[in-house]
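User: Before I run my own analysis I want an independent prediction to cross-check against. Here's the chain; please return only the structure tokens and, at the end, one sentence I can use as a sanity check.
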Amino acid sequence: GKRARLVLIDDITKGAKEAYSIDIQKSITIAYDNDWSSRGDDDSQKTILLGTMWSRFDLLNVIQQRDEEDG
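Assistant: Structure tokens:
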């Protein structure tokens, strides 16, 4: 796949129905972990996530929680 210095993810969840589906949210998080976040040229890759934080399982909240845990 193609490499990236910047990954921009905008409104990954399409409405409340998807937002509150744990299966869909897990699938999105797995895709982020396995595919999108591994596209960096090096460790300096930046990721910008935009959208509504619908549920604690959505990608925006998962990434925020990980960031808080990593300090």
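Sanity check: The chain has a mean pLDDT of 88.
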